[in-house]
Amino acid sequence: MAMERRVSEDPSTSYDVPANGGPIGTQQQQAAVASGASQGLLQQAAIPEHRVRKFNKLLQEAVVDLDALRELSWSGVPLSLRPQVWRLLCGYLPPARSRQAQTLDRRRREYADMVPEYYDIPHEERSEDEVAAYRQVVVDVPRTAPNVPFFHEPIIQESLQRLLYIWGIRHPASGYVQGMNDLVTPFLAVFLSEHLPGPMEGWSADTLNESIMLAVEADCYWCLCKLVEGIQDHYTYAQPGIQRAVFRIKELVRRCEAEVSDHLESEAVDFIQFALRWVNCLLVRELPFCLAIRLWDTYLAEGTGFSEFLIYLSAAFLLSWKERLTRLEFQDLILFLQRLPTADWTEAQLERVLSEAFILRSSYSDAQSHLRLG
């Protein structure tokens, strides 16, 4: 669904974030936010009080206005409200507050029932394809978010392995595909934050138990289902969705910044050499983890149209380096594009790219319509 307004608040403006809790949250977490404690891997630029009040007002309505929530969330969701807001944006929770607790309990039980059915079975009872899928997940999970140590705790690794394997088995059209492990990490961090308050760097896996992990896994599973629903052809055989997306990014850059496009072409740099990973992992691997989470606010606010927005975002992301790109030759271009210097990026820089992406979409969406193949 296209939004009418995409204006971010001035990221340089300083505000205090009040301890306003949503329907699902923890007092400890809210206190940490209110006190101005650094959130590290979950850090967030301060959000103006009037925006926090708008979120709380929407979430406290008997029936949440999802269109208004999407528009508000596009420019970022307050840290303590993210779990509840993301569940709503994903359609995991219904907008009627009276049904939310019951729905959450039912969906979590549905996932818990899948674990013994699909995962906790003897290896010899799996089909050949299931064994191959299991092995691929086992190989990929340890590679997940190498810069986030908490995700490498044994209980978290097992949780990732379980939910990714189950997702793959229940979605046979694509099955599990490399890169999906990256897509689940923002959900995992946000839903764990309800149980592990304070900076992510200080989280201890010792406080987690099977009941908590199954609830968090369930939330991640159902939200991942919704996210991938709009990009299913990114992960089917030959990945036609990704191929189309990379082609459209290339054409968009050619239309709006011919100098960059011509230089890449003259240096024999093909967009597939760098943009395939961008599209496959939705730019998660190109950004610090805290910014990937902020990016998810916008993706989820876009709803079913987020894959379309990804085209403009990828082009804007590439063009944020345009002056440097046009000075590099082939080998340095490849190295640069595969290891972009974003480690020190702040939300302000991401917000600028998001704003540029919105402008590109406003300017070129009609011109791009003929490029939508299939």
From TrEMBL:
Gene3D superfamilies listed in its UniProt record: putative rabgap domain of human tbc1 domain family member 14 like domains, Ypt/Rab-GAP domain of gyp1p, domain 1, Ypt/Rab-GAP domain of gyp1p, domain 3
Segments forming a coiled coil: none
Keywords, sorted A to Z: GTPase activation
SMART domains xrefs: TBC (SM00164)
Renumbered residue ranges of the record's region Disordered: 1-26
A molecular function GO annotation: GTPase activator activity
Pfam families: RabGAP-TBC
Source taxon at top rank: Eukaryota
Keyword Manganese: no
Residue span, Rab-GAP TBC domain: 76-303
PROSITE patterns noted in UniProt: TBC_RABGAP
Keyword Signal found: no
PANTHER family linked to this entry: LD44506P, TBC1 DOMAIN FAMILY MEMBER GTPASE-ACTIVATING PROTEIN
Designated name of the protein: Rab-GAP TBC domain-containing protein
